[in-house]
Amino acid sequence: MLISQNYAIFAPKLSNTFMETERILLRRWTADDAVVLYRLASDPDVGPRAGWAPHTSVEESREVINHVFDNPTTWAIVLKVTGEPIGAIGYGSSCDCGLPALPDEPTIGYWVAKPYWNSGICTEALQLMLNHIKATTEIKSLISGHFIDNPASGKVMEKCGFKATGEICTSPTLAIGSDSPVRVLRLTL
């Protein structure tokens, strides 16, 4: 899911440039990450699970870094042993994606490269970001969703305290999966 560019109301009070656990580091994306992002995001199994088309060039990945990831609430998920990004995570103004967000309720989104699926990395990164949100913002709740055919993404959210709202929606503005059902989850902070 892509998140809109209106971040001002959700920007953290503290300007942490990174957050970390024993295994991962969340840091800002840089132009130097374009080749790695392309390698990860060109995998045809990754982007469609989050509603975006696989990247077709390093230049496209650079544009995503410069125009989508370049904000104070989006981070590269970096595996500390390699020092390279393996995915992305962030939050921001509720995207134009059909989720039934409350007023001023941000959307969260994340993805990791296929070799890191089912390793606990997304859960670890999401919990790290949620701890950061609680410590540095006044956000009261967050919303997200996952395609019904990607239950692993929903399990990540549930492990971090998100609850299913009982709502199913579609996200007509997504590049891929615009007519696929999305299960909605919310976290009250």
Brief write-up:
By secondary structure, the protein is an alpha+beta fold. It has helices spanning 34-41, 47-50, 58-67, 121-136, 151-159, and strands at residues 18-20, 24-27, 74-79, 84-92, 107-112, 141-147, 163-169, 182-188. It has a domain at 8-139: Aminopeptidase, CATH 3.40.630.
Fraction of helical residues: 10-25%
Low-confidence stretches: 1-9
Neighbour order of strands in the largest sheet:
1-2-3-4-5
Largest sheet: 5 strands, antiparallel
From the spread of the alpha carbons, the general shape counts as globular
Q: What is the beta-strand fraction?
A: 25-35%
Structural class based on helices, strands and sheet pairing: alpha+beta
- Which architecture name of the domain at 8-139 does CATH use? 3-Layer(aba) Sandwich
Count of discrete alpha- or pi-helical segments spanning 4 or more residues: 5
CATH topology of the domain at 8-139: Aminopeptidase
Q: Output the CATH class name of the domain at 8-139.
A: Alpha Beta
The separation of the N and C termini measures 22 Å
Fourth-level CATH superfamily of the domain at 8-139: Gcn5-related N-acetyltransferase (GNAT)
